[in-house]
Amino acid sequence: MTQNTPLSPRLPGLPLRSEDVTHRVLSAAQLRARGVSTAQTSTHCLPGGPWQHLLPGVHLLHPGPPTGRERLRGALLYAGRPPASARRAPADPADTGYGESMATGLAALALHGFAAAGDVEALHRIDVLVPRTRRLRSTRFVEVVRTASMPVPVRVGEVPVAPVERALADAVAGTSDAALVRRLLTEAVRDGHCEPAAVVRELSEAKLLGQPAVVGAVDALLAEGRAAAEARLYAMVREHGLPEPLWNVELRLPGGPLLGGVDAYWPDQAVAVELDARAPRYGVPGRRGGTEPDARWSAYAARRERLEQLGITVVHLTPRKLREAADQQATVVRTALMATADREPAAYVMVLPR
Hints:
Blueprint: H1 21-24, E1 25-27, H2 28-33, H3 38-44, E2 52-55, E3 58-60, H4 68-79, E4 102-104, H5 105-112, E5 126-131, E6 142-147, E7 154-156, E8 159-161, H6 164-173, H7 178-190, H8 196-205, H9 212-239, E9 246-252, E10 258-266, E11 271-275, H10 295-309, E12 313-317, H11 319-324, H12 326-338, E13 350-353
Parallel strand pairs: 5-6, 11-12
Antiparallel strand pairs: 1-3, 2-3, 4-5, 7-8, 9-10, 9-13, 10-11
Helix pairs in contact: 5-6, 6-7, 6-8, 7-9
């Protein structure tokens, strides 16, 4: 019997051969639902037998070492077991057995395609996210992560996976490797997995913003997000035939103080574009649910209001809007440029390189 022929022909309801990991790793309840008795399972898992115990209540249906995908499925089956009071109920053979559990941390990021997370096959630990009320212990290669608010999982194939932002927060919480944290956060934004604001919000919710490994990485994350958003803005202007603006300039009143910088400015139309590529900062670092903006956000709002008082139209764009709806954002900018004739002339301002 080889690793790909793990199942005895005498056991009802089980295939003789399977390349599908879902047939190579089954819970005790799934085996019973397929007509395999507890006694048969125990016999097959004896030393030298064709099966083995992978995790409590989870069986590997071949004698060789588990692959990374098999360990991942085993971890989800272990975390998805129903409470003891419900285990006597007949299991549905078609049920995945994962319950509410989902992969998170590095395992989830690997499934999302993060190069910095490595390959699922090489991971020595699988993090699984479960509701806080579940009474489960971390065991062997499974790290149980509890939460009071379960996110909606993303399906990667048949595997339920935590959204990128939550998986990042759990990966960061599980490592003190500052270099790895920086690579993960940078890749998240550089490769378009998510926006900086969403990542920083999740890190704040998890009370991680103050950790030494995170502080410098967040600055790198915001810089990467800024660069990506600027590239999308340049592409939007050129691909949609908008007039070429003055890029990255400072505005000031003649003889007066600086009014602040803008990412693009059309002086003839007095239209400015400001990219909101920053992430929210909270008044009390790490306070769960905190929403108090810091002084920089207040200054940003005041600057925008001052420009509009001078008759300058400020178009506010976010990285997500540029990434997901560039056509619509180009229309917004074009409309602002065309509306110049219907507005009072703007105050004269000086334009300086930023």
